[in-house]
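Data card: per-record layout.
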Amino acid sequence: MAIDQDHKRFRDIVRGKIRENFKKYITKGEMVGKRENEYVKIPVPQIELPKFRYGPKSQGGQGQGEGEGGEGEAGQGEGQPNQAGNQGGEHSVEVDITFDELAEILGQELALPSIEPKGHKALENQKYKLKGMTDVGPANLRNFKASYKEALKRYIASGHYDPEETIIVPIKKDLRFRSFKPARIPQSNAVVIYIMDVSGSMGGEQKEIVRLQSFWIHTWLKHHYKGLQTRFIIHDANAKEVDEDTFFRTSEAGGTLISSAYQLLNKIIEEEYPIDDWNIYPFHFSDGDNWSAEDTKYCMRLLKDKILPKVNMFGYGQVESKYGSGQFLKDLLKELPNDEKLITSRIPNREKIPDSIRDFLGKGN
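The structure for this 365-residue chain is written out next.
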C-alpha cells in the first residue's frame, strides 16, 4: 500500500511539472518523437527527491558525542576544492506517461470539451475491470481491509476475540483478492486524415508546426476513440497517400493544386469509411496558395457537396509563410461562412499552436 501511495504521489508531481511547462511541451515538441505504443517519454526538469534532514548537534542520540576529529578523504589534503564549476546544472529525467494522461492534461489546460460521437454506429469492445472479491489470487491483488474483516469475523465466531488484547492475524482462508471481470465497453470507430501542402512555399518551420499540432490533435482524438486510425495525404500539384514518416519529411518544389488532395480524400472516405460506421476527421494544413481561382471554386464544390456531409468536422489550418498568399482561408470563409462542420484556424507561428488546437477541438464535434 505504501508503494502504491508513493507511486501516486510521484505521478501527481510529474503531472504538476508537465502543467508548469505545458506551453513549452506544445510548442517545442520535446516528446513528439519519443512514442512507444501507449506511452510517450517526457523530459521533466528538477523533480525533488526525498532528503534526510539532521537535527542540531545539541540533541543527544546514538553515535553522537564529542569524539575526535576525523581525517579528510584520501587525495583531498589541504588543497583547494575542485574548481570545475561553481553552480549546479539543471537536471531532467525522462518519465513515461500514457496518452490518456497527456490528453487529460491537454483538455484541462485548454478547457476542451469531451467529444461525443454523433450519428454513427456504436461498437462494443470487451475489457476486463477490477470488480468484486475472490478467495484466491496473486499477492499484488490482495485486499488488506477485506482480508482483515474475514479474520475478525473468524475470531469473533470462535469466541477468542478480546478487544483489549487480541491481535488479529489473517490466515490463508481469510485472504481476499480483487478479481477481474469482463465488461462490455461501448466504442466507436474513428479515422483522422491529415493532409499537408508540400509545395515549394511550405518550408521546414511550417512543416514542424504541422507536426506538433498533428501530435496533439491525435492525442486528444485517441483519448476519445480507442483504436483510432490515421491516414496521411501530401499534395503539391498532385496528391498521394503516404506513411507518417514520409508525410513529415517530404520536400517538394512544385505548384499547388488543392483539389487533387480533396479528390483523393473523398475517394478514401467513399471506398473505406462508411459514414454510418465511422467518425471521420480530416485536417488540411497549407499556407493558403492555390494554382487558380477556378481550382479554388472546384474545392468549394467538393467540400460542400462531397466531403462535409460525410465528416464529423473538417479542419483547415493555415500556416503562415513569407511565400504564401493566404488567400485560400479567405475564400473558405467567404464561400462557406455558415457550415458548422468547417473549422478554420490561422497559425502564424509556434506560439499560436495552443490557440489553434482550441479552435479545432473546442466545440467537441
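Known properties of this structure: The beta strands are 35-36, 39-45, 92-98, 122-134, 177-197, 229-235, 239-242, 278-286, 314-319, 342-347. The longest strand covers residues 177-197.

See the next section for split statistics.
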